[in-house]
Amino acid sequence: MPHDLAALLARAPVIPVIAIEDAGLAEPLAAALVEAGLPLIEITLRTPAALDAIRAVARAVPGAVPIAGTVLDERQIAASLDAGAQMIVTPGTPLALAEALAGCGVPVMPGCASPGEAMALSRLGFNALKFFPAEASGGPRWLSAIAGPLPHLVFCPTGGVTLANAPDYLALPNVACVGGTWITPKAALQARDFAAIGRLAREAAGLKGR
Ligand code: 3PG
């Protein structure tokens, strides 16, 4: 895996995954997450506010690493980079998207959920992969099993990961970190309850990585 991606993933055991409806929340939210020890922040391109939210984090929150998530096509790669995303994550990775990502110029964690997908991505040079949807696809047992034939790959399992089951993932040698939405509950975001989000983030940041 490229050195810069390894260094990024080593910065926190958990990547908060956020669907943000109001870009105005992005700056205080990211500041709370960074302060709590979670500098990598995945903002999913599932809402109209997402690109503006990435832009706000990139511009105004020192120490934050804004990640564009749910990148589904080549057009969204360009839009993410233009907004200031410092990393790109996909939930799954068809070949055309993977090829475009391979030359995009920032660290990338493409998504996969099967050995064949992981192998195809590895052939393109991607060795740190999002495993999604983790719980529905086999969870820690899948990750343990794939370490046999594909020991050079590391994963960020996401999808169904919680504070309760994250330690089972983080104990595995081929898990670099985990991702999840539990740190930023919708109700807390809507209420602008950054203190509550900060508490959840501190708990997550305290989880033990490899
Ligand atoms: C993602 O895109 O990574 C997932 O939607 C996160 O899923 P979760 O809500 O189960 O954490």
From TrEMBL:
Q: Which stretches are annotated as coiled coil? A: none
PROSITE patterns membership: ALDOLASE_KDPG_KHG_1, ALDOLASE_KDPG_KHG_2
Keyword Nucleus listed? The answer is no
Tell me the keywords, alphabetical order.
Carbohydrate metabolism, Lyase, Schiff base
Mention any Pfam family matching this sequence: Aldolase
The answer to whether the entry has keyword Lyase is: yes
For this protein, the record's CDD domains field holds:
KDPG_aldolase (cd00452)
Q: Which InterPro entries match?
A: Aldlse_KDPG_KHG, Aldolase_TIM, KDPG/KHG_AS_1, KDPG/KHG_AS_2
Per the record, what are the reactions this protein catalyses? 2-dehydro-3-deoxy-6-phospho-D-gluconate = D-glyceraldehyde 3-phosphate + pyruvate
Query: Which superkingdom, per the lineage?
Result: Bacteria
GO molecular function, a single term? 2-dehydro-3-deoxy-phosphogluconate aldolase activity
Look up the record and name the pathway of this protein. Carbohydrate acid metabolism; 2-dehydro-3-deoxy-D-gluconate degradation; D-glyceraldehyde 3-phosphate and pyruvate from 2-dehydro-3-deoxy-D-gluconate: step 2/2
Give the protein family: Belongs to the KHG/KDPG aldolase family.
Q: How does it assemble?
A: Homotrimer.
| NCBIfam families according to UniProt | eda (TIGR01182)
Name of the protein in its database record? 2-dehydro-3-deoxy-phosphogluconate aldolase
Which organism is the protein's source? Salinarimonas soli
What taxonomic ancestry is recorded?
Bacteria, Pseudomonadati, Pseudomonadota, Alphaproteobacteria, Hyphomicrobiales
